[in-house]
Amino acid sequence: MSHGIDPDRIAVLAFDADDTLWRSEDSFHAAEVRFCELLEPHTPAGIDTMAALAATERANLSITGYGVKAFTLSMVEAAVTISEGRVPASVIGELIEISHEMLTEPVQLLPNVPEVLAAVGPHHRLVLITKGDLVHQTRKITTSGLEHHFDHIEVVLEKDPATYRRITTDLGIAPGGLCMVGNSVRSDVLPVLELGGQAIHVPYHLTWELEEVHDHQMAIVEVESLAAVPELVLNEP
Amino acid sequence: MSHGIDPDRIAVLAFDADDTLWRSEDSFHAAEVRFCELLEPHTPAGIDTMAALAATERANLSITGYGVKAFTLSMVEAAVTISEGRVPASVIGELIEISHEMLTEPVQLLPNVPEVLAAVGPHHRLVLITKGDLVHQTRKITTSGLEHHFDHIEVVLEKDPATYRRITTDLGIAPGGLCMVGNSVRSDVLPVLELGGQAIHVPYHLTWELEEVHDHQMAIVEVESLAAVPELVLNEP
Question: What is the value of pTM for the model shown?
Fold first, then answer.
């Protein structure tokens, strides 16, 4: 198996959603840029607005979790803190408006997604495993036009080995039977490999700072695009 | 069956969590009162601050869902709107602080909860079905000391017949085998009865305005306290 994936071991082929099936990080990045523009006139000289926002997000992660609502609460909090209590209500109103736009914007599928799911669906049981906010992820799934490809959908709090183990138990498969496809080495690849499963990394051009990992020692199967996944997971005819 | 519950039909005994197993609405109510106090000096005469907040919540429900983060975003939005853009950043900072307190406050179990779960657990398969924010509900479940009583835990977006049907399918039971115990007629009782299941209403002293129902025609089994549940769901010795 030169490419490192054994199709015969796959009992469930699972896909991440954000930045694997559809764009997500682009909107967060655009919101961060807008946040910095909005705060700039109200920020003392020498403050790195973007870094302060990231620090606020990191500090809040364990209590607010992932997703647009958590991100917005961190933007609002950082706006008050960074401006030393001088940010005007109009800016706060704009931050709320950004969050509503993010929560309601149409799903933008990445290239080849429906074709890839249609190609692998007849051969594998497909599951969607996504992290984040329940209401927003559900809205994206139901409006994506992709829901019918999946046998099961999981919105989880954290993608760690314990979560993947629980999911495989619920699906009635051994952890080694899971093959996960996603853009995050930290969330989609390493915890699945740790359990003895298989994983395919499909990098996205943007990676959220808190998803970055640099110090792992695992050999990772990586492809440039989702379009390369079918030939990895399907046996030769 | 004069009390209206048939123990022999129960394949899964499911419990709601907020205001059924532990206090929840009290904190929201206290936050609303504090919101009104904080906004009062910045609100034009004649504005009903509490009603304006409820209207904002209702308008946002479909895009932000339930829970503390959604509630906080509505508080922040309403603060900007009600004050006609004059609310100071310090008040916004206090609203964020209220949300952090709500998200991290210790779980306050309602009376008799561990005893009731211990009494029914040996006789029925127990499941927790709760609505709200994934990260906050998960934190409450894991810190409640109750998690070990449950065979399965579901955090859902909306408690409607479709959701209950999906859960019973996942649990491998017919909808008629579900018996749900909870404080909300709208979310815990009516949709389960609609599917042919059984339900026990345990009212809480506070009901969120958006959970209220007034126009149903169903006969509902209601008890004053969770302590009355075991004798309803257990067969005579």
Answer: 0.88
